[in-house]
TrEMBL record:
GO process annotations (BP): proteasome-mediated ubiquitin-dependent protein catabolic process
Region (Disordered): 80-124
Signal peptide: none
Pfam families membership: ubiquitin
Domain Ubiquitin-like: 1-77
Listed name of the protein: Ubiquitin-like domain-containing protein
GO cellular component, one term: cytosol
Source taxonomy: Eukaryota, Viridiplantae, Streptophyta, Embryophyta, Tracheophyta
Record-linked PANTHER family: UBIQUITIN-LIKE DOMAIN-CONTAINING PROTEIN, UV EXCISION REPAIR PROTEIN RAD23
CDD domains: Ubl_ubiquitin_like (cd17039)
């Protein structure tokens, strides 16, 4: 089956998937074809004057009513605030590899409390 996908940037393209493909299969096909983050995709099926969110990756496209030539809209889940690309162990290992004289100060993480400096009143 071939479906038409429109990404929020306005890009429109066709994706070919099997007749028994799941939502996850379609997301993988979109990722492979368009090089977009498939794990962040949100798919909406255009059904006339309404849209159906296809939020169960294990359901088949036909269970959602997707047919050959159906139009889908693809959006992206926002990145999580504070999401880091490396783990704390990786960060520690990377910092140990650097020369300590050239290392920059670490940015506090969310779980780190930063205290305000104390100000001394010098007015007499």
């Amino acid at each position: 089956m071939q479906v038409v996908v429109e990404i929020m940037t306005g890009t429109i393209f066709n994706v070919q998937v099997g007749n028994n493909a799941t939502v996850q299969d379609l997301k993988i096909a979109i990722h492979n074809q368009e090089n977009v983050p498939g794990d962040r995709l949100i798919l909406l099926l255009d059904i006339g004057d309404d849209h159906l969110m296809m939020n169960d990756d294990q359901k088949t496209l036909s269970e959602y009513g997707v047919q050959d030539g159906s139009r889908l809209y693809a959006f992206f889940k926002p990145l999580e605030v504070g999401a880091e690309s490396e783990t704390e162990d990786e960060r520690d290992n990377n910092n140990n590899d650097d020369d300590s004289s050239s290392s920059s100060p670490e940015t506090p993480r969310e779980d780190t409390t930063v205290e305000s400096p104390e100000y001394i009143d010098i007015s007499d």
